[in-house]
Amino acid sequence: MRFVYLVLFTCFSNFLVAQEAFTFFDQVINPGTKKEVIIPINDGRDSTYIPVTVLHGARKGPVLGVTAGVHGYEYPPILAAQKIASKVDVAQLKGTIILVQLANVAGFLGRSPFVNPIDGKNLNRSFPGKKDGTITEKIAHAITKHVISKSDFFVDMHAGDSPEDLMPYNAWYSSEAFPEASRKGKEMALSMGYDYAVIFQIPEERISKPSIYCSQEAFHRKIPTIDIECGRLGIPGTEETDKIVSSIFRLLSHLNMTSKTIANEPKAPVIIEKRASIKSNHSGIFYSSYKSGDRVKNKEVLGYITDFFGNKLEDIVAPESGILLYKIGTPPINKGETLFSIGIIED
């Protein structure tokens, strides 16, 4: 009789954790399998596509949406996405990962910073997108419909584009409008092993307006959401790529989608609640010996701008003390562009 009870208990337990098939873009993915899917995008004149890998675990669990290549010149996340797709063991995975391998294919193939060369629009300024819009707006709509809307948790992976010197950090969205999503987002961010974590504070009144950004669209839907920034100057760095891969696997472990394979727990990151940006008052040539990750003091001179004859137009002065999250890493500068972003850290 004890044996019978054991068999019944085992069968019942397996029933509770058994996974059902997952449908994505009209394709059925069986439990414990991986499917590579192409989402075609066409506006009647131009066309492109979105390559997506769906990793459907053998056991029940949450759906994690992950996007790479929203900006096609940000290489470490794109390379990391390929490693993630190959390293995840779907037989051991609990839940499902919808992994956008490369959101902006035309930007990647065209080596185009920031924008999609087909229509000149920035995909990360186009969310939630438009069903009948331009190519970029259609890409945003497709990601919103097929990836974000299906996700229980969401991560958008970025790096420094071709002129952007950027230090590694992650960020979570927080708003009094969505306390539960904010709390879970914070827990996600702290689990991922970055030395610095930024809070993206979203006022309640902002929630009712168009999201604009890929990750913010997820948060507007009450989905706990993380941004990753890891990589600089459009360089396909191995260290940055591996850092992203490691952070995603730490997150999978935190979400109980995989077993813990990383022995050491991440140390608590420095949390940055506020940032200060410095914008240029002139167009010209930008000079600075500082780099991302440097600590700076309030009123410290960080660089200067000249005209094309070499005449100094302005000194660039830090408005706050903190750490340089970002700086323009190339000489050309246009009036109104951001020169530095400082994560404010109290002395």
Describe this structure in words.
The protein has about 350 residues and is an alpha+beta fold. It folds into two domains: about 20-270, Aminopeptidase; about 275-345, OB fold (Dihydrolipoamide Acetyltransferase, E2P) (Beta Barrel), CATH 2.40.50.100. Helix content is about 25%, strand content about 30%. The chain contains seven helices and 20 strands. It has helices spanning about 1-15, 75-85, 105-110, 135-145, 180-190, 215-220, 240-255; strands spanning about 20-25, 25-30, 35-40, 45-55, 60-65, 95-100, 155-160, 165, 170-175, 195-200, 225-230, 270, 275-280, 285, 295, 300-305, 310-315, 320-330, 330-335, 340-345. The chain has a nine-stranded mixed beta sheet, sandwiched between helices. Strands 8, 13, 15, 18 and 20 form a five-stranded antiparallel beta sheet that branches. A four-stranded antiparallel beta sheet has the order 17-16-14-19, with no helix packed on it. Strand 5 (about 60-65), helix 2 (about 75-85) and strand 6 form a beta-alpha-beta unit. Helix 2 (about 75-85) crosses helix 7. The longest helix has 17 residues, at about 240-255. It starts with a helix and ends with a strand. It holds the Pfam family AstE_AspA_cat. InterPro entries: AstE_AspA_cat (IPR055438), N-alpha-Ac-DABA-like (IPR043795), N-alpha-Ac-DABA_deacetylase (IPR053138). It comes from Euzebyella marina.
